């Protein structure tokens, strides 16, 4: 029976603890070498980090991997030496330990956004604290629980591995919640994968956690290194001399060459090599001149979408780009002062501020992710935004596709994102008016309602969140970022694949309403306690006990009516029902928001107007100073309150 290796990976949701078996991957013994190609790569490759936790110095081990001290990746914790050692490897002689309190202690590493990584953490106890108490603590990837580390042997390392798609420029590995002993870590490794290895369609919402790796038939657990990285340098391993079929073993450079020389043949080879190099150089020059001429000829033609995007075969096509304005790259560079002022970033790329020659302020989004998905989102935004227009959707001004740069141009939104004004910050003014928050919800709902009912076919946004709701100079809201949007053609189902951002996954508008009430982010271990990992569970627990005050943002101005807060909280909980058939339509949600605004406006009326209303029939128009009649001649004051569209 041939040797084989079986790996079992669990697909773990990034918003919670639900697991399901993904797949088993058997392979022949040769596949074991290929497996370790991904895991034991050379130190010369970029995107690879190997941290010796608690170590003082950087060094290179016996198989060529560079190990770095973890001091510059974490600011807390104490270094300790192992008292019991059963490992010959230098990285297993020290650990870094952390206090057994309620805080999270995180290693933060720079990564490439939307790139797949293997994260490997090892834990060798070695009685470093001289207490002989086996630790038990939690491990997480940022806010997402990963696993619980349980130590049951002081001299055997515990290894945890996960494969995750980076959703931000940094990736954090955190230790917390020790139930026994102290949290500690021996090594932390980061390995960048290529675009195809361990790809899953759900990787934006799930990461892979290694459940088991079983080696059937091998005589030992020795690791296999990537031999292509050896470059035939360094010492030969002693095991090489034990090969059963090895006939002779030479030490040093034996100068093994043929006993005769062929000078004429050598000259012919040299001449052929020189002639071949000259021909290649001439061909390269001709190709370069031809390419430059072709670029110049096509500079005024319509956009040519990148090749991967042509394979989409989706509802959108290149025809829609004909109605969108195409900017020259030089025009964009002049407007942004060569991309000098960066104002934000996202999954698509980096956003820069610019100003056109006609005085219009613009936001320029430069694609930095040139993968198939990145090109797909670029095409999606160009083709979709060129045909939809609404005052509560961010205006799309055009695009540029030149010299390998894919650029989208939007109107500039002076007050940034709703997320910034709910959390507050050094440069952001927090919105403390409940009425203003309701108006922002109303604006966003109107934009989504237009996508659902005003477009043919209906368009589903699929990535609605507080960072995708932008505020103009008058603090009016507009919905942005349509890279993941999808049309519903011929009554088909919205989507069979979940898209979006963790914490906002369908249904996302209810989560935004809860953010507006509480001011909290969707997922937080600090705000919601140990039993509620997300804002939905936390808000529902308070509401079921009748404690609406428990979810209201304490920074809100005191002047608000609890009836309007209850109304928004109740519609938010309806929006987050597990089954779509139980959720209200966006038009129904908009109506509830407008009713809540009417409650607040009625509460803010002066007592003199209340007295006047009591003497005026509902059908009569109110005319105190004439300003209300100017707004709508035939609308009574009661109608104005109950029909916010007249405002």
UniProtKB/TrEMBL annotation:
<dbReference type="GO" id="GO:0005524">
    <property type="term" value="F:ATP binding"/>
</dbReference>
<feature type="domain" description="Protein kinase">
    <location>
        <begin position="337"/>
        <end position="597"/>
    </location>
</feature>
<keyword id="KW-0472">Membrane</keyword>
<feature type="transmembrane region" description="Helical">
    <location>
        <begin position="267"/>
        <end position="290"/>
    </location>
</feature>
<dbReference type="Pfam" id="PF07714">
    <property type="entry name" value="PK_Tyr_Ser-Thr"/>
</dbReference>
<dbReference type="InterPro" id="IPR024788">
    <property type="entry name" value="Malectin-like_Carb-bd_dom"/>
</dbReference>
<keyword id="KW-0808">Transferase</keyword>
<keyword id="KW-1133">Transmembrane helix</keyword>
<dbReference type="GO" id="GO:0004674">
    <property type="term" value="F:protein serine/threonine kinase activity"/>
</dbReference>
<keyword id="KW-0067">ATP-binding</keyword>
<keyword id="KW-0812">Transmembrane</keyword>
<dbReference type="InterPro" id="IPR008271">
    <property type="entry name" value="Ser/Thr_kinase_AS"/>
</dbReference>
<keyword id="KW-0418">Kinase</keyword>
<keyword id="KW-0547">Nucleotide-binding</keyword>
<dbReference type="InterPro" id="IPR011009">
    <property type="entry name" value="Kinase-like_dom_sf"/>
</dbReference>
<dbReference type="InterPro" id="IPR000719">
    <property type="entry name" value="Prot_kinase_dom"/>
</dbReference>
<feature type="binding site">
    <location>
        <position position="365"/>
    </location>
    <ligand>
        <name>ATP</name>
    </ligand>
</feature>
<keyword id="KW-0723">Serine/threonine-protein kinase</keyword>
<dbReference type="GO" id="GO:0016020">
    <property type="term" value="C:membrane"/>
</dbReference>
<dbReference type="InterPro" id="IPR001245">
    <property type="entry name" value="Ser-Thr/Tyr_kinase_cat_dom"/>
</dbReference>
<dbReference type="InterPro" id="IPR017441">
    <property type="entry name" value="Protein_kinase_ATP_BS"/>
</dbReference>
<dbReference type="Pfam" id="PF12819">
    <property type="entry name" value="Malectin_like"/>
</dbReference>
<protein>
    <recommendedName>
        <fullName>Protein kinase domain-containing protein</fullName>
    </recommendedName>
</protein>
């Amino acid at each position: 029976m041939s040797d084989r290796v079986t790996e079992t990976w669990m697909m773990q949701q990034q918003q919670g603890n639900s697991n399901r078996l993904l797949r088993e991957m058997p392979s022949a013994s040769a596949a074991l070498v290929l497996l370790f190609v991904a895991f034991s790569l050379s130190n010369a490759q970029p995107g690879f980090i190997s941290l010796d936790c608690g170590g003082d110095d950087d060094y290179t081990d016996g198989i060529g991997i560079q190990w770095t001290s973890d001091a510059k990746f974490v600011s807390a914790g104490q270094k300790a030496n192992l008292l019991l050692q059963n490992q010959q490897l230098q990285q297993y002689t020290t650990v870094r330990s952390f206090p057994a309190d309620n805080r999270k202690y995180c290693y933060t590493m720079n990564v490439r956004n939307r790139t797949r990584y293997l994260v490997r953490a090892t834990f060798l106890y070695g009685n470093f604290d001289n207490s002989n108490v086996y630790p038990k603590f939690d491990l997480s990837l940022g806010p997402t629980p990963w696993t619980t580390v349980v130590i049951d042997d002081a001299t055997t390392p515990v290894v945890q591995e996960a494969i995750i798609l980076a959703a931000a420029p940094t990736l954090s590995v955190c230790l917390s919640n020790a139930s026994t002993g102290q949290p500690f870590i021996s090594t932390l490794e980061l390995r960048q994968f290529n675009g195809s290895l361990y790809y899953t369609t759900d990787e934006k919402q799930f990461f892979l956690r290694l459940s088991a790796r079983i080696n059937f038939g091998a005589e030992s657990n020795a690791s296999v290194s990537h031999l292509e990285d050896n470059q035939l340098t360094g010492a030969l391993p002693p095991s090489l001399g034990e090969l059963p079929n090895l006939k002779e073993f030479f030490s040093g450079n034996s100068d093994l060459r043929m006993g005769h020389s062929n000078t004429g043949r050598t000259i012919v080879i040299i001449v052929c090599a020189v002639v071949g190099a000259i021909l290649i150089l001439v061909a390269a020059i001709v190709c370069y001149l031809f390419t430059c001429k072709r670029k110049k000829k096509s500079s005024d033609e319509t956009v040519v979408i990148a090749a991967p995007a042509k394979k989409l075969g989706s509802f959108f096509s290149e025809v829609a780009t004909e109605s969108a304005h195409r900017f020259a790259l030089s025009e964009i560079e002049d407007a942004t002062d060569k991309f000098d002022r960066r104002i934000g970033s996202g999954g698509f790329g980096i956003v820069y501020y610019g100003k056109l020659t006609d005085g219009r302020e613009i936001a320029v989004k430069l694609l930095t992710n040139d993968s198939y998905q990145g090109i797909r989102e670029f095409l999606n935004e160009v083709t979709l935004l060129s045909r939809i227009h609404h005052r509560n959707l961010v205006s799309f001004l055009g695009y540029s596709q030149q010299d390998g740069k894919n650029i989208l141009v939007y109107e500039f939104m002076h007050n940034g994102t709703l997320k910034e004004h709910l959390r507050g910050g050094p440069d952001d003014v927090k919105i403390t008016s409940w009425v203003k928050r309701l108006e922002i919800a109303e604006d966003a709902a109107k934009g989504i309602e237009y996508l659902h009912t005003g477009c043919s076919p209906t368009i589903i946004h699929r990535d609605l969140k507080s960072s995708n709701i932008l505020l103009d100079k008058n603090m009016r809201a507009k919905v942005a970022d349509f890279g993941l949007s999808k049309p519903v053609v011929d009554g088909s189902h919205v989507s069979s694949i979940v898209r979006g951002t963790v914490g906002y996954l369908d249904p996302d508008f209810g989560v935004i309403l809860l953010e507006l009430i509480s001011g909290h982010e969707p997922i937080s271990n600090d705000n919601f306690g140990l039993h509620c990992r997300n804002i939905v569970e936390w808000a529902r627990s308070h509401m079921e006990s009748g404690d609406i005050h428990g979810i209201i943002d304490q920074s809100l101005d005191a002047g608000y009516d609890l009836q309007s807060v209850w109304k928004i909280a109740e519609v938010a909980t309806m929006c987050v029902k597990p089954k779509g058939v139980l959720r209200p339509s966006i038009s129904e949600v908009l109506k509830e928001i407008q009713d809540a605004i009417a409650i607040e406006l009625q509460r803010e009326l002066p007592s003199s107007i209340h007295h006047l209303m009591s003497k005026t029939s509902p059908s009569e128009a109110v005319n105190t100073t004439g300003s209300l009649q100017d707004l709508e001649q035939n609308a009574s004051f009661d109608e104005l309150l109950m029909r916010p569209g007249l405002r």
